[in-house]
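DM from R.C. (forwarded with permission)

"hey, sorry to bug you on a friday — could you get me a structure for this? deadline for the figure draft is monday and I only need the backbone to look sensible"
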Amino acid sequence: MWLAKYKKEKRKRGIFLLFLILYLWSFSSTPAYSIMLRMDNSELIARSDLVIYGEVKEIHSKGDNREAIIFVECILKGKPTAGAEIKVIFSPGMEDSPVFETNERVLLFLTKSDSELFMTVGGIQGKFSFGKSQ
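My reply, with the result:
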């Protein structure tokens, strides 16, 4: 009699552990979601230290990040002079990071990252591409 009771308790524990494992596993397979607030043009401009139109001349690797060298053709807000080159840092593979390509023409809404680097305002929202130059 005690053997039947022992087997019944063992089966209950096994079923409980199985459900516990399945429950915990369901949390690990749930994808993470993030919410990005959409900014309109006036918000992009207000949050930008610099708004430029230019061409991506070079791209350099900096560890996990990349650095795009942009030749400034037109300044819409900010201080650099036309003809200057600025450095924009970005992180390919990150969900909200823009991606730059050599010879791409871009309109950028930028904020200072450190002394000589900029980053786009609102991640991908701060970059508008106009295709590649020939």
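R.C.: lifesaver. The helical segments are 2-28, 41-47.
me: no worries. The longest strand covers residues 50-62.
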